[in-house]
Design goal:
The chain is globular. By secondary structure, it is an alpha+beta fold. Helices cover 33% and strands 22% of the residues. The mean pLDDT is 91. Strands 5, 6, 14, 15, 16, 17, 18 and 19 form an eight-stranded mixed β-sheet that branches. A five-stranded parallel β-sheet has the order 8-2-1-12-21. A three-stranded antiparallel β-sheet has the order 3-7-4.
Length: 462
């Protein structure tokens, strides 16, 4: 059993998984959450992307199983759908339709974010009771600053968000001393400002913003499809769609588009946007579906990386994880998987020696590595749409990488060897070096640039 006190700022998925990683390594974990958790799975204000489509990629699923064995099965028992790409995913890319190989290499999970969060949170709290670590959850409480100095963070200042007038002077603000503060507060993290207030340097930031916006609406099909459908943007139509099942017999439709092509947030205009994609099968199917929610929009889709992992990037006693350190365009569905990979990276660092001197820097580097692949793939996909004002300029190496990955992605649609490698990386189950193996590189560079299938493959391949 470990000693010490850790405070996790943010009680969403990333914070819950960070708290789970700390179990057995510290005496107490305090989880600071701005919202109040619903009694049953429900969308909440503190998860602004919560109503949109979430698919848990296989690399994240494997990390989650290592952290909490059997949790994937618990999600499916609660109503989540288990999918095997590419067999169960009908994908139209800019080059045409992808072949539906039966690879047996990857398993993904599709459900609402509300169900995912509630299931993971229940498991982490149950594990806490068995671990010997006491977990205190401060709901309706926000962090407002850090304690300590430029060399070491020693805690957090918090404020109750729902304290009545008579209580405010007495308990609205207080200090939580800690041996480790984990920032899991997401895209809106205020840690750079808080660290600057302590005299620590602000982290260097990289930003690539393609100006992508998306909207999501929930439907109940009269006759569900037997496959997920994904329509990727193409040069003549920079719009896309994804159609995937969630629990309760419902399906989520997420539409996306770049600047000037953003999808509507009026439900009456959703079908018109789908029709503009030029894929009648999805359009006709949706016409028979019953809408069960309004359309919800989201525009904060920039890729942003704060380099806390640089030498001297974090003071002792502080760690930033997931979106607080590196956030991706949500349309690629990587965030939850990276949260699980970050939690596993944190657990392994703790297993190596606990909260020892130098732990913060070592853990920050490990967490950064956990997000490397997702960053490269998201930035590579968004870079062609980003303006000079919205992106850090690419170097020669990135331009060469973009050329190579473009050819590779086109060939992956029809080539089983290249496709397997491409999915290993994009599903966060292998590092980018997998794309440079001799067999993959030779087929990518020497063979003609591939074209996909002209018509959707209605059956998978064995």
């Amino acid at each position: 059993m470990g000693t010490g006190h850790a405070v996790v700022v943010g009680g969403g998925l990333a914070g819950t998984l960070a708290a789970g990683a700390l179990l057995g390594h510290v005496e107490t974990v305090t989880l600071v959450e701005r919202d109040r958790y619903p009694e049953r799975p429900a969308f909440r204000k503190g998860v602004p992307q919560g109503r949109h489509l979430h698919v848990f990629l296989s690399g994240g699923r494997r990390a989650l199983e290592e952290l909490f064995p059997g949790l994937g099965g618990e999600l499916e028992a609660a109503g989540a759908h288990r999918l095997e790409p590419p067999r169960d995913v009908l994908t139209k890319s800019a080059n045409g339709w992808q072949r539906r190989f039966h690879e047996g290499r990857h398993t993904t999970t599709s459900c609402t974010r509300a169900l995912f969060d509630a299931t993971v949170r229940a498991r982490v709290l149950a594990e806490a009771e068995k671990s010997g670590t006491r977990v205190e959850v401060l709901q309706a409480t926000e962090a407002i600053g850090l304690l300590g100095g430029a060399d070491r963070v020693t805690g957090v200042r918090v404020r109750a968000r729902d304290a009545g007038r008579a209580e405010r002077a007495e308990r609205a603000e207080r200090e939580l001393p800690a041996d480790l503060v984990v920032d899991a507060s997401g895209r809106g993290s205020r840690a750079p400002r808080w660290l600057a207030e302590l005299g620590a340097p602000a982290p260097r930031e990289e930003v690539v913003d393609a100006g992508i916006g998306y909207c999501t609406q929930m439907f109940r099909p009269a006759e569900p499809l037997d496959v997920v459908m994904v329509i990727q943007p193409r040069p003549d139509c920079p719009r896309g769609a994804a159609w995937s099942p969630v629990e309760g017999g419902n399906w989520l439709l997420t539409l996306s588009g770049v600047r000037g092509q953003h999808p509507p947030t009026e439900s009456t205009e959703v079908l018109g946007f789908v029709e503009s994609l030029g894929e009648p099968a999805l359009y006709e199917h949706l016409r028979s579906c019953e809408p069960v929610s309004p359309a919800y929009g989201f525009r904060d889709t920039s890729n942003r990386r704060r380099h806390y992992d640089a030498p001297g990037g974090v003071p002792e006693g502080f760690l930033a994880v997931s979106d607080a350190a590196c956030t991706f365009n949500p349309v690629y569905g990587q965030g939850m998987a990276v949260a699980a990979l970050s939690g596993l990276a944190l657990r392994r660092c703790l297993d190596d020696g606990g909260l020892r001197p130098g732990f913060a820097a070592a853990a920050q580097r490990a967490v950064a590595r956990a997000g490397d692949t997702a960053w490269l793939t998201a930035v590579g996909a968004d870079r062609p749409y980003a303006t000079a004002e919205d992106a850090t300029p690419p170097g020669a190496a990135e331009r060469l990488r973009s050329w190579y990955v473009g050819r590779l992605a086109a060939r992956a649609a029809i080539d089983p060897v290249v496709g397997a490698a491409f999915r290993d990386v994009t599903y966060l189950a292998a590092p980018p070096s997998r794309l440079l193996s001799p067999a993959v590189a030779l087929r990518t560079v020497l063979l003609p640039k591939a074209r996909g299938l002209a018509a959707p493959p209605l059956r998978g391949e064995s």
